[in-house]
Amino acid sequence: MAVSANVTSKKKVPVLVVVQLSGGNDFMNTLVPFTNGVYYDSRPLVRIPEDKVLPIGDTLGFHPSAAPLRDLFNAGNVAMVQGIGYENSSRSHFRAMDIWHTCEPHKIATEGWLAKVIRLLDPEGANPLTGVSFGRGLPRAMAAPGVTATSVDNLDNYGLLTPVEVAEQRQQDLQFFKRMYTPAIGTGIVMDYLGQTGQGVLTGAELLKAAPRQYTSTVQYADNPIAKALRDVVRVHTANLGTRVFYTQHGGYDHHAQEVPTHARLIGEVSGALSSFMQDLREHDAADNVTVLVFSEFGRRMKDNGSGTDHGSGGGAWIVGDTVKGGLYAEYPSLAPVDWLNGEDLRHTIDFRGIYGTLLQQWMEIDPTEIVGGVYEQIRPFKTVGA
Amino acid sequence: MADDRLALMAHLLRRAGVGASREELEAHAARPYDEVVEELVNPERSPEIDEDLLQRYYPQLFANQDNPGSWNGRWFYRMVNTKRPLEEKMALFWHHVFATGWTKSEHTPTMVAHIEMFRQHGLANFRTLLLELSKDPAMIYWLDNCENHSYEINENYGRELLELFSMGIGNYTETDIKNVARAFTGWTFEQPVPLYPFGHYSSKFVFKPEDHDDGEKTFLGETGRFNGEDIIDIIVRQEATARFVCRHLYNFFVADEPQVPAWSVLPPQDPKAVDALVTAYMESDADIRSVMRALFTSDFFKAARFTRVKSPAELIVGTLKLTGDYREIKPGLIQLHEASRVMGQMLMDPPTVEGWHTGKEWIDGGTLTERINFAVGQVQDVTKPGIRYIVRRLSASGQPIQPSEFVEQCLDLAGPLDVSDTTRGALLEFAETDGPLTFNTDADSAKSEERIGRMMTLIVASREYQFA
Known about the structure:
The structure holds two protein chains of two kinds.
Chain A: E1 15-22, E2 31-33, H1 37-42, E3 54-55, E4 60-62, H2 67-74, E5 78-85, H3 93-102, H4 113-121, E6 131-134, E7 150-152, H5 167-180, H6 189-214, H7 225-237, E8 245-251, H8 259-283, E9 290-296, E10 315-320, E11 327-329, E12 350-351, H9 352-364, H10 369-372
Parallel strand pairs in A: 1-8, 1-9, 5-11, 5-12, 6-7, 6-8
Antiparallel strand pairs in A: 2-4, 3-4, 5-10, 9-10
Chain B: H1 4-16, H2 22-29, H3 33-41, H4 52-57, H5 68-81, H6 85-97, H7 102-105, H8 108-121, H9 126-134, H10 137-142, H11 156-163, H12 174-183, E1 187-189, H13 195-198, E2 205-207, E3 217-219, E4 222-224, H14 228-237, H15 239-253, H16 271-283, H17 288-296, H18 299-302, H19 312-323, H20 333-342, H21 365-379, H22 385-395, H23 403-413, H24 421-433, H25 442-461
Antiparallel strand pairs in B: 1-2, 3-4
Helix pairs in contact in B: 1-2, 5-20, 6-8, 8-9, 9-14, 11-12, 15-16, 16-17, 19-21, 21-25, 22-25, 23-24, 23-25
C-alpha cells in the first residue's frame, strides 16, 4: 500500500540513525581533492590517482569504491560535511571517541549525547526501544545513569537466556524467569530495581521479536557487518516500535598500514550498505522520516607513512536521507602547508557539536544547547518544508 | 536450611576472594574461621601461582605488544586459580580506588606493572602504597605528573591524591592542593624504549632534582621544604584519610555504599562499622593488613551476606569457580575480557579517575542481559567439572529426590545462596514439572542430569545470584 508522500498527511516522527566509522576514516581519500598538488606530493603511496576518482565537480571526487555513495550524492540525498572536528583534536582513538560521544573535550564525562536525547524523548523510560544500538554493549553516546537504551547483538536471537539452544525449553525457562523477577514487597530497592530491569528486557525482547517477522524486502544487501546492521535498522524501524535513535558501528578504519586495499573495501562496504538501506526504506515507504549521520573520531594526517596514514584531525561527516538537501557543506580544510597544525594535521572548519546541533534542532526538533554544551554554528542540510 | 558454618565460609571466600569450588569451600569450612582469615591476610604463606604453562599457551603476552585484552585474560586466569585469593582481590580493590585507565596511554606494559604493584603492596602500610602509587609511571602519565614542573605546576595529581586517593573533599584547601603539587614536581618517568621497532616496554620512575621545587610549603598547617614523601607522611596520619580509606574498604568488602561523590554529604550506613575499621587503621599506624583482619573477623562483616551487587569481574570469576571452567589452562581467556567489557568493566580501563560506579549502577538492561547470558552459558553445560560435581552429589544415593529437595540442594551447591520466596516458588514450580529426580536407568539419569543443568540455569539467572 505504498502511497507517495502527501502534503496533507500528518508528519511522521523524525528518526536519527548514527553510523560510527571506528578507527579514524581518511577523509581526504573519501572525498579526494584531485587537482591539488600538495595532496599528491604528500601522499606518494596512498593517493588516489586523478583518473580513478569519481568526480562531483572540478576539484573534488569520491573514492573509486564509493560509487553507490556518489550516486546517492548525485541524486541529492547526501550532505557532505567537510572539515568537521574541534579545537585541539585528540589523537587517541578512545579519548577522541569519548569526546564525540559526550561533547565534552575538556573533562571526562559520563553522559552520552544520545542518552540525553533519549531522556528528553522518553523521560519516564516507558519504551526500552526509544534508543536501539546494534552491537554488544552500549556505546557511551547512549549511556547515562537512569536512561534505558537497548543493545542488540543479534536481532534474530535477542534477549535473555539466549545460550539455551532448544527454543521450546528457552520459552519455558523465560516463563520461570518472569516469575522470579516478579516485584515483591519488602525485598529492597536493589532487588526491585533488578526486577524492573529484568522485566524491561523481557518486554523489549518481546517487542523486538516482531521486527524480523513482519519484514520482507526485495533489496539484496551485501554480506558484511555494516550491511547487516543497516538492514536490522530497517527491520526495527519498519516494525513501528517507537525507536527514535538508532546506533551502529563499522570498524577497521585505523589505516596505519595497508591503507590502499583496506580503505577501498571499507568505503565500498559502507557506501553499498547505505545505498541498499535507502532503497529498502523507500520500498517500505519509510524513508521520509529517517536521517543518517555517518561520522568518525578523526581524519588522517596529510602525509602517508609509506603504507598508510597516522591519526590526524579535520575529518568529514555525511548526512544521508530523502529529506536532505544534497551538496557540500562547510569548507574543505586548507591543504596549504602553512595551515597545517601539529606538523601535518588539517585544520577543522566546523565544530562537530554544530552538526549535532543541526540534526537535533532542524531534524529532531529539540533544543540542542544543553545536550551539546553550548551554541555552535549550524548548517542547513534539509529541504525546506513544502519544497 | 544450609549449614551456617558453610554459608559463612562461602561468604568470606566470596569477599576475600571471588568464590570457591565446592571442594575448596568444604575444606576451608572444616577449619577454624579465624585461621582461614589469617591465611588469607598473609598471602605470602601460600604458594605463588605458576604461570609457566600460561606463557606457553599465550606467547603474545610476552611479545611486547599492545594487547590489554590478553593481559586481562591472564588476570582472570589468576583470579580463578590463585592460592592467594586476597592478593588478587586487593589488587582489584586498589584498582577501583586508584582508578587508572589504559585508554589515555594505550600502553599495556605500564598498566600491567601498575596492577602488579597492587598485588605486591596491596596489604602493606598505606604509606608504602601511596609512595609506590606516586612513583608509578602509569599513574604519573594518567594524572599528568610528568607535566608538573617546578616553573609551572600541574595540580592534577596533587588534587586527586587528596580528593580521591586519601582524604576526600572538604578536608584541605586549594592552597594545600597547590603545595602538594609543588612537592611532587620532578616526580616523573624515564621515556620508554621507542615503540617502533622495539615494541612496548614498561617505564621506570625517575626523580629529577633540577625540576623539583625545593622551596618552603605549608600543608595542613605544617610547614617545611616538603618533598612528596613528607606530604604522604602527613596524609597517612590524618583521621580523614583513615575514614575515607575505611569507607572504601567497607563499600568493597562489606556492603554497597552510595557512590564516592556523595560521601561528603551522606554519612556511612553503618557508622559504627566504619569507626571500628578506623580504629584498626589508627592503632596499627595505617597497616592495611591489620584493617583487613579486623574487617573479616567483625560481626558486621559476618552479617553482611548478599549485600553487594557483584562487579562484572566477580560475577565472571565466581561463575567460573562454580563450573570449574579454566581450572586447566586452555585458549579463550580473551573472551573473559570481552565478557566483562560488555558488562561494563574493562579491567585496566576504568571510565574515569573516579573509578567504576558500583552497586546498583552496574545494572542496566544491556549489562543485566550480558551477566545472565554469560552465567547461563556456563552452567547449562553439564560437562563442566563443577556441574558434573553437582550431578554426582545429587545422584550419589541413587534414591529419588523430591522437587523441594531438588531446589534446596541446588541452591546449597550454588552458594549456598539465600533466595526470596518469589524465586524459590518459581524454582519449585520448575522442579515440580517433571516430578522427583530419579536415577534408576541410564535414561532416567540422563533426564535428571538435564534437569539439574536447567535448575542451575534458572538459579544463576535469578536476582539473588547478582549479589555477593
